[in-house]
## 1
Amino acid sequence: MRLNEVTPEQWDSVSRPEHYNTGSVECIEAIKASMSSEGFKGYLKGNIEKYLWRYEQKGKPLQDLSKCNWYLTRLIKEITNESN
């Protein structure tokens, strides 16, 4: 399966997993609020490295690479917002 063939169900488990959206605040936003800007960027970078490191090990390489991409996109967004 190629990246552009990810089903909506598979993508939802990457971009908006149910277990991270059970309250009125999305988990990633609560994490961001609890950290400095540098700390949050480090958190995002760590997750990028984690998913890239293990994508061949868990049996769901496309899902882990998609998660890696999600965190990379979020890091790019954070850096872009700082530049503006």
Note: The radius of gyration is 14 Å.
## 2
Amino acid sequence: MRGPIAAPVLLALTEAAVAAPRLDSVAVQVLGKGTDVVISITIERPTLLDLSCSALIEAGDGGRIPISWNIGDSRTKTARYEYKRPGSYRVRVAGAGKDACVGLKEATVSVGAPKGDAKSSTPRCPTGWILVEESAQGGRFTCRARPPLQPLRCAEGTTYFAEGGEIGCR
């Protein structure tokens, strides 16, 4: 009876041994009042084999930063990034390449004026809102609600809509 039980246990252990690390969290910290940030990504390693993986950070303004973990590396890695313009950005981290980490994580960051900028008051929108591009003139600016990550799930017979800053099902 030992043989039939041992085979499924061995198969389960083998499958777990080849599991890739998954992205656990992403955090973005603004340095000072400027546009420099530190992006911290933590992975979870599912096995004792301490597997390696790689990911791609998309800064939200077109910037991309590759990042990877090797055997023996700390679970958390950081990357420094400087935005060219003040505003709110959605930072996305996803597995990439041959040995891709599993998963996708996102965070939102709002950054102020670049270093040396003469403007003393950069408009900031509240959480969940983004600055309308080129709307800031003097002390005047406009914020728009951030669109949802995914469309709403509408009941049968209705369809999702997004127009004029409003979303819903019709």
Note: The longest strand covers residues 22-30.
## 3
Amino acid sequence: MSHLNSNLLVALFLCALIAAGCSTSTGGSAAEADSQSRTPDQGHADAAGVLALPTFEGAEERSDRLRVVATTSIIGDVVSRIGGERISLVTLMRPGRDPHGFEPAARDLTAVADADLIFVNGWDLEENLVHEVEAIGDGTPLVPVSAAIVPLLRGAESDLHGAEGERAADPTTRYAGVDPHVWFSVHNVEQWAQNIAAVLSDLDPENAPAYVDNAAAYVEELQALDDYIHAQVETIPVGRRVLVTNHDSFAYFADEYGFEVLGTVIPGASTLAEPSARALAALIDTMEEHDLCTLFAESSGSQTLAETVATELGSCDDVQILQLYSGSIGVEGSAADSYITMYRSNVDTIVGGLR
């Protein structure tokens, strides 16, 4: 069984963007790569800057369920919808946990060591976790659910106002960092579902028809979600489709549904980054210039900086800090305890705050 090295994928992707002479040893397209079994040093991103799924050979009939690990609660929710009762699933990050700074407990590492495969974001979202998962799960495939998705890029040279991003397929872009928050495009999660079904089917061919059917049914639900989002967004005047967020994680939402991310409190795509006083002052000036008195903060992160910005907004009689779900679904039993209900909740909050 092969092992997909996600860190190598990211490195090779960035290398392909920066230097025309830097190439993978395998070459070819993603489709060609998927026709071959890969070993850890053969995993790669293709020429368009997308990740590829690992392939598996010689899968045998199983007497037990596949032991599957998912890193984040959002990935785990989607995997559960495709795998259902035919897999044994452990999700490492419980609802409400920030994936950027998550540190695994001993029981988490035990689950990793026993897994048949591990689903990860693929773009190093889980920056404190992926390296440990790779080490503990030596020989266990790390599967990027974001395979075949062309990501948005974040610019190392951009400031708080450069949040819209550019497509990674453009090798001439000055942006260097991949935005891993791909799930805020519903169409990307449709790709997740197809990827998950393909990998589970490869490893458990006896149950492949069920995985494919589950994915098809889930994609129909996602299409209904996309319709709902478009309908709700249409109720917001075009000139008010502007977001100021706590953390730069909503670029895919903005790109998909016609919003502008005017600024973020925390710079970059990771919540581990720290803004400078100058950057915060610039953000406050921008909000005042555009007469913005609503700030969206993630439910899984600290709101301290957002509250600081709100306090300094002298142009607003009343400042709203509204919570959105970003790196996690809500706790079980809440109105946001799945990817679909989480996204609907976010849209309802955004519409209520901007309309």
Note: The chain has two domains: 59-225, 233-354.
## 4
Amino acid sequence: MTVSYRKSLQTKLDNKLIALVKPSHMSNDEYKIACNMESFDPTIKNGSYLHWLMTADEGEDSAFKIKEKVHALIVNALKKKYLLDIDDAEQCSYFYDGIVDNVVKDKHFVEQLIESVFEAYPDTELFDCCWRLNRAFGFTSKYYFSKDHE
């Protein structure tokens, strides 16, 4: 996947996510401007925003409306390998923290995330972290019974 194509997919994902989480009285552009005025980048490249998208509850913030749709978009982008820049350690760290924070809250979502990482990002540090988490909690049987994941 070329860098420009990946960026265009990320931009489309950002717009879809913003349409779901923004307050109803704002347009996507107004939401982006409001976030930027607070020195916050509402894109998936921003690890803290990605973490918030993964962990926010519907009742936690009035702007966060449809958790299942947000989670589905995240899992889909992860499977298609354009959600994460695997070389961006900060983004990956926030992403992994989002997985860990969901261990108790949403086990089904965690299972989907771990399986997607296993499929899309083999031979990475993120894969190793998810493998250890899966070995500890048994979210999925993939790699669970093998001591060596290679």
Note: The radius of gyration is 16 Å.
